[in-house]
UniProtKB/TrEMBL annotation:
Chemical reaction(s) catalysed: 4-O-phospho-D-threonate + NAD(+) = dihydroxyacetone phosphate + CO2 + NADH
A Pfam family matched in the record: PdxA
Organism: Clostridium luticellarii
InterPro entries per the UniProt record, alphabetical: PdxA_fam
The protein, known as: Putative D-threonate 4-phosphate dehydrogenase
Homology family: Belongs to the PdxA family. PdxA2 subfamily.
Cofactor: a divalent metal cation
Record-listed E.C. numbers: 1.1.1.408
One of the record's GO molecular function terms: NAD binding
Lineage, top ranks: Bacteria, Bacillati, Bacillota, Clostridia, Eubacteriales
Function: Catalyzes the NAD-dependent oxidation and subsequent decarboxylation of D-threonate 4-phosphate to produce dihydroxyacetone phosphate (DHAP).
Length: 333
């Protein structure tokens, strides 16, 4: 009986670096020691990636997870053959965008059927996906829709810093409008739950302010911290969650890196993404927190990198980190 968790790795946009970083990651034998990986995508582009990376591996094409071999040196591919072989590499393509969506859709189906225990996604291109007919802002929103989840969040994780977001793919004015005490409370609770599952005893959670200096007692802004953040923080504290703030955004991430906090609640996309990426894009991963049905999803924390696709330049470090994190998040039986 297979004891390793089955991790479904979606190919992402086939015109980007996804196929390459997947092949490179699966050349690391230790991955097969900790999990049973299966790629969900179009086999033709895995084959191209094997050639580009000069990898001594073969493909095992499957139509059902039970046919996978999970053997190092042979990549299992749940084949969704929907992209023309002549697809240009390194260009925005509606065809590749639609395919990337279909790979994620199949992965969610397999997760809901308990045939895989977690999903790990290679990058998709938002422009290509939308031109392919799927009007989503990104993976997080796709997964929320496919799992009928309303309360979810994007968490970024690196070796030195973890960040979870109140809002993500919206403009700054809209982001501030969307923040309210209940959303603040729910994201704090999600942060506490995911870190507790990961083995933290009492996660120390910090909430970043919205305004410079977290408003500095009304000096900056219009009382957003008092109206939108503090009531949610107090509610979480009353439930025994170790959360504090709001703290000035220009220092709270530094303090977290130095060990004062286990995770920071960021108010909007760039507030959380910039510190993670400054610390090193190759080391960061993306986790969708709170999906219904216990669906687990991790991802690389970089894009499709069309400019280097097909050139055997892209690093697999973030993909390796994402696979390992997916394994860590799978509950023990």
């Amino acid at each position: 009986m297979l004891k390793r968790p089955v991790i479904g790795i979606t190919m992402g946009d086939a015109a980007g670096v996804g196929p390459e970083i997947i092949v490179k990651a699966l050349k690391h034998s230790d991955i097969y020691d900790i999990c049973a990986p299966v790629v969900i995508g179009d086999w033709k582009f895995l084959k191209k990636a094997i050639e580009v990376t000069k990898s001594d591996v073969s493909l095992n094409l499957i139509e059902d997870i039970k046919d996978a071999r999970f053997s190092y040196g042979q990549i299992d591919c749940f084949n969704i053959d929907i992209i023309p072989e002549a697809l240009p590499i390194g260009e925005v393509s509606p065809t590749a965008g639609n395919a990337a969506f279909q790979f994620v859709k199949k992965a969610v189906e397999l997760a809901q059927q308990k045939k895989i225990q977690a999903i790990c996604t290679a990058p998709l291109n938002k422009e290509a996906m939308q031109k392919g007919g799927h009007k989503f802002a990104g993976h997080t929103e796709i997964l929320a829709r496919l799992t009928n989840t309303e309360d979810y969040s994007m968490m970024l994780s690196s070796p030195k810093l973890k960040v979870i977001h109140l809002t993500t793919h919206v403009g700054l004015v809209k982001a501030i409008e969307m923040i309210n005490p209940e959303r603040t409370y729910k994201v704090i609770k999600l942060a506490d739950e995911v870190l507790t599952r990961a083995g933290y005893k009492r996660p120390k959670i910090a909430v970043s302010g919205i305004n410079p200096h977290a408003g500095e007692n009304g000096l900056f802004g219009n009382g957003e911290e008092e109206k939108k953040l503090i009531p949610g923080i107090v509610k979480a504290q009353q439930e025994g969650i170790e959360v504090s703030g709001p703290y000035p955004p220009d220092t709270v991430f530094f303090r977290a890196v130095n060990g004062d906090f286990d995770i920071v609640v960021a108010c909007y996309h760039d507030q959380g993404h910039i510190p993670i990426k400054v610390l090193g894009m190759e080391d960061g991963i993306n986790v969708t927190v709170g999906l219904n049905g216990g669906v687990i999803r991790t991802s690389v924390d970089h894009g499709t990198a069309f400019d280097i696709a097909g050139k055997n330049i892209a690093s697999e470090k973030s993909m390796l980190a994402a696979i390992r994190s997916a394994v860590e998040l799978v509950p023990e039986n």
